[in-house]
Every structure is written in structure tokens, then in C-alpha cells.
Design brief:
By secondary structure, this protein is mainly β. It folds into two domains: 16-157, Immunoglobulin-like, CATH 2.60.40; 163-260, Immunoglobulin-like (Sandwich). The protein has one helix and 24 strands. Strands 15, 17, 18, 20, 21 and 23 form a six-stranded mixed beta sheet that branches. It has a four-stranded antiparallel beta sheet with strand order 1-4-10-7, with no helix packed on it.
Length: 262
């Protein structure tokens, strides 16, 4: 006797997700200006009928970003080779999640009728100016692939050049040189770093160097500079601030350096 087994399509798996595009390298300045970026997608495609199951799609945004929850709803375009049997609508929107409700199924008649859902007009922006962030939009709903499935990669980068600061290192680890004592006979090396309005690091920059607010026996010659760095040598007792300038950038000088004998 021959046993014949009929297998029904397995719903909820094997859909192809094309992540949304256009959400990377957004300027941190968009947080300050309130500028939205419109991303294209995502798109969910059944590879066999019945894979999209009734329920919801809950698109969640990664930390550091927010959805536009008050403007025009995202667009929804559903295509199928035969009659449309799947329907999707926006049912809730917050700054962290967009909820779509899915009804219907492409299983049954007509046969061989897998659907494609294309979502558009989703608007995103940074929810802070710093620290910089990146991550993926994910789905916490049951109607389409969830877990770590990527529905759109997002990232934001440092904004426009805003200031040049006197710092302790020539890379992002540098911090503003604070008020401190410098023992006579020792030195301190500092760096001129460009940052955006939120103090995100841009680059080390060649600058014009000088000592400001000089008191006591400190002299301009105590500072020797070369491009993007300078060295202040404690010689005789006194104090000064180190300043770096470059074009129209706002200058942020060091704290007061006081030469002392220990």
C-alpha cells in the first residue's frame, strides 16, 4: 500500500525582506533642525502563498532614532499576480514603533498567488545629537519575519564643523584640556580638534596657536606648535590659556595652565 502525504504551505516563514534604504549617514545636525529623512521600503515578498499571516507587523526603531509619529501615514502598496487577498493598514504610530495590521491570506483560491507588500514614506531622524548611533529597524509583530531580521539600517554621523578645541589627544578620545598645574621643567602636549555643535569628533586640524591671558613669567615662546599639535613647556612661574584657531570655527581654549614649582 502506498501512503500519500499532502503537506500544506507553512505560513510565517521564508518571506523575502528587502530592507529600507536611505537611512544611513544622516547628519547629527538633523536633531537640532528637526529635519526628517524619508526612507524607501521595506518590502516583504512571499515566496509561496500563505506565508503572510493575519496579525500585525510592528516596526521598531533602534536607540538613537525616532519615527515621525504625526505626519502623513506611511504608504502601503500590495501587489499580487492574481486577485488581492492580503490587506495591510496603519493602526498605531509612536516615535519608537509603527504598527500595521494585516488581514486576509494569499492561500486558497486563486492558486499560486503570493503577495508583495511595499511600505514607503517612513520618516526618521536622530533623537539626540550625541553619542552617534547606528542600528536596524526590526519587526516585533507576528505577521512577517521577526527577531534580528533587518528592515532597514540606520546611522547618523557628526554634523557640520562648528568648533576647534584644545584637547588631550588627536582622535575622538581627546578631551578638553582642563585647568591644571604644570610643574616647572615639564611639558604638556595638546591637539587642535574640530568637532560639531554636539562635540562629536570630526578630525585633527592644523591650526594657528597662541597663548592667551598670560600672567607672571610665562612668555609666548613657552608654546611651540606644529600643525595640529602644540607643546607648552613650564619654565618660570605664571599662567596662560592655550588657544587654537582655524578659519571661522568657534575657538574653545584650554583651561588655565599654571606653572608651579613642586
Amino acid at each position: 500500500m502506498t501512503l500519500i502525504v499532502f503537506l500544506a504551505p507553512h505560513s510565517g516563514i521564508a518571506q523575502t525582506v528587502t530592507p529600507a534604504s536611505g537611512g544611513t549617514n544622516i547628519s547629527a545636525d538633523d536633531y537640532a533642525t528637526g529635519t526628517w529623512t524619508t526612507i524607501t521600503g521595506p518590502t516583504i515578498t512571499e515566496t509561496a502563498p500563505g506565508q503572510l499571516s493575519p496579525g500585525d507587523i510592528r516596526l521598531q526603531i533602534p536607540s538613537g532614532f525616532e519615527f515621525d509619529s504625526t505626519g502623513t501615514d506611511p504608504s502601503i502598496t500590495i501587489t499580487s499576480p492574481k486577485a488581492q487577498k492580503v490587506y495591510l493598514s496603519v493602526t498605531d504610530r509612536t516615535d519608537s514603533e509603527i504598527v500595521f495590521t494585516l488581514t486576509g491570506s494569499s492561500s486558497g483560491n486563486p492558486k499560486n498567488n503570493p503577495h508583495t507588500i511595499a511600505i514607503g514614506n517612513i520618516r526618521i531622524r536622530p533623537s539626540r545629537g550625541t553619542p552617534l548611533a547606528s542600528g536596524d529597524i526590526t519587526n516585533a509583530g507576528s505577521s512577517a519575519p521577526g527577531g534580528t531580521q533587518n528592515y532597514g539600517s540606520l546611522s547618523f554621523i557628526a554634523g557640520a564643523d562648528a568648533k576647534i578645541r584644545v584637547e588631550s589627544a588627536s582622535d575622538a578620545s581627546g578631551s578638553l584640556i582642563s585647568t591644571q598645574n604644570v610643574e616647572a621643567g615639564t611639558f604638556i602636549t595638546v591637539y587642535s580638534n574640530v568637532r560639531d555643535q554636539f562635540n562629536n569628533f570630526k578630525r585633527n586640524e592644523s591650526a594657528s596657536w597662541s597663548l592667551q591671558n598670560i600672567t607672571g613669567n610665562v612668555v609666548s615662546g613657552d608654546l611651540s606648535a606644529s600643525g595640529g599639535s602644540a607643546t607648552f613647556t613650564g619654565d618660570l612661574v605664571g599662567s596662560a590659556n592655550i588657544q587654537a584657531t582655524s578659519g571661522a570655527l568657534t575657538t574653545v581654549s584650554s583651561g588655565l595652565l599654571t606653572v608651579v614649582y613642586l
